[in-house]
Amino acid sequence: MGFVLSSFAFLLNKTLLTSLKRRITVYLQVLNFLISLSIDYFFFVKDREMREFQLKLNENQKNRLENALKQIQVLSTKTNSSASASVIVADTIPVNHEDGVLKGHGTSDLDGEVVATLCGVVERVNKLVYVRTLRARYKPEIGDIVVGRVIEIVPKRWRIEINFSQDAVLMLSSMNMPDGIQRRRTAVDELNMRSIFEENDVICAEVRGFQHDGSLHLQARSQKYGKLERGQLLTIPPYLVKRRKQHFHHLEQYGIDLILGCNGFIWVGEHVEVRDAMIEDQENKPDQQINMSDRSLMSIEEQERTFTPLETRQIICRIANAVRVVSSLGFNLTVEQIIDIVEMSISLNLEIHEMLGAEFYVQIAEREVERRSSSGKRK
Amino acid sequence: MEFVSPEGLRLDGRRPMEMRQIRGEVGAVSKADGSAIFEMGNTKVIAAVYGPREVQNRGQQMSDQALVRCEYSMANFSTGDRMRKPKGDRRSIEISLVIRQTMEACIMTHLMPRSQIDIFVQVLQADGGTRSACINAATLALADAGIPMRDLVTSCSAGYLNSTPLLDLNYIEDSAGGPDVTVGILSKLDKVTLLQMDAKLPMDIFENVMQLAVEGCKAIANYIREVLLENTKQLEHRRGI
């Protein structure tokens, strides 16, 4: 059958060739006609530039975006030489063997040469040479603050998805009990685990470390960790979140909590007052007992407390969209920048959905150029 | 049938040693950890990599290395006549296996124990050499996903028709029934990870044909390196300090 098909295709080719000349002239005419109409040609931004969403950019916007990105490239080559140290898989990393070399992550040895096994940037710390990846899954480090989602409840522990190569484990024993008392976890506690976190809850915790069996453990030994409610979870590539002193941010002007998880999970939610365990203990004891007894019957007061006002919800969406735009442009994510973008969108009187539009996208790119060039001068 | 004209041109106007135009692009699927599109002439393939992630089937979990899975499929619209094939036909199972073994040879699976890596490749346009195109696309996608690899695997096919070795066969040449040698190599390590031929060929001719395919692989490797370096640099520039 294959042969028949191929010969058929060949014949087709021959007949096509004869009529090709005529066709070309027709095509040219059509093309001329189109150009004479001067239709607005729209360009789709290539996926390489943004994976999140496709935008319709007109020619002007496209040029502006290209300019901005070009300038960013020029600026980054000027300010830091690290970009020039980009390597890809199987590139040889030049090292001085006399000093002795420690091979770190993303490198391997091939006939005495140090060879990269990842795409990324070469980093050198004293003798250590390693490759820092861009675009990869999250690599946990002890003490990182992560946001994750509960996948499964198994005896004494929760399994949590944190964008790592395996699910993380949060032990019941490495969790502060809601009543704030330090004590041994009993079988009753184990049965009540669902009252703390259920499946699909979004939670925030700290990386405790790897256990001997190679599994990753988390801990939540403070009031600031725990269940996250009334907000949005965004996932961005983890390399865009830089490890800092602060990952919890309370944006007071909006009444919003912003958590930049090191694993690329970003939480934007209504601000929740973190109460000291001891004070809470005394205040809420009777209250909690009522809660436990009849949860289904929520008082009006209770409902009011769990209600998020419209303005707060709108500002949550605004911040979330700011994060989306920045991450799809591939810029590093900082709180200052997000606040800046949110304020810019408000001052421009933009609707929330317009923040994901082409014009705003280009404006953010241009603003980033300004910001980087001014900060470069200050240095 | 005449596959090489007396002037030394093939059916699509190429010289015997000439490859089709290749194009690769990283980042085609938004939700995947790594993805790529690879084109060789009219053959167009999309690849998506998910992982390393938690093993779905606990029984398959390995405590010392990662599990690599691969699924090859052809879109219904990829061939000239629209065929509704069952999903798991023998041909695609075989190619899935080939791709999986080839990629597993270069992924450093021992660095990601208890996890699994899923590679999905789909043929969008088929014009011969889908196997090689799939491997090239998978390599790009794996590199994009930040999965540690020993080297980049690249693949290319070569054939022997009208007593001439031909590089990178298209569909018409492929279905002529002559020998079709698909080679996959690790260009830096200079190792062969894939070699397939389903016909007979004298030793000395086979050497020539295979050498030609290896040359093709190297050319593709160079191109893929360019694409990846460009992409890496761009990401780093964008990210800033």
From TrEMBL, chain A:
GO terms for molecular function: RNA binding. Residues 51-78 form a coiled coil. SUPFAM superfamilies: Eukaryotic type KH-domain (KH-domain type I), Nucleic acid-binding proteins, Ribosomal L27 protein-like. One of its GO terms (cellular component) is cytoplasmic exosome (RNase complex). Residues 141-221 form the S1 motif domain. Keywords: Coiled coil, Exosome, Nucleus, RNA-binding, rRNA processing. Transmembrane segments: none annotated. One of its GO terms (biological process) is poly(A)-dependent snoRNA 3'-end processing. The keyword RNA-binding applies. The keyword Nucleus applies. SMART domains: S1. It is found in: Nucleus. Belongs to the RRP4 family. PANTHER family: EXOSOME COMPLEX COMPONENT RRP4, PNAS-3 RELATED. This is S1 motif domain-containing protein.
UniProtKB/TrEMBL annotation, chain B:
It is found in: Cytoplasm; Nucleus, Nucleolus. Signal peptide: none annotated. GO terms for cellular component: cytoplasmic exosome (RNase complex); nuclear exosome (RNase complex); nucleolus. One of its GO terms (molecular function) is RNA binding. Residues 18-148, 151-216 form the Exoribonuclease phosphorolytic domain. It comes from the Eukaryota. One of its GO terms (biological process) is nuclear mRNA surveillance. Keywords: Cytoplasm, Exosome. Its main location: cytoplasm. The keyword Transmembrane helix does not apply. InterPro entries: ExoRNase_PH_dom1 (IPR001247), ExoRNase_PH_dom2 (IPR015847), ExoRNase_PH_dom2_sf (IPR036345), PNPase/RNase_PH_dom_sf (IPR027408), Ribosomal_Su5_D2-typ_SF (IPR020568), RNase_PH (IPR050080). Transmembrane segments: none annotated. Belongs to the RNase PH family. This is Uncharacterized protein. It comes from Aquilegia coerulea (Rocky mountain columbine).
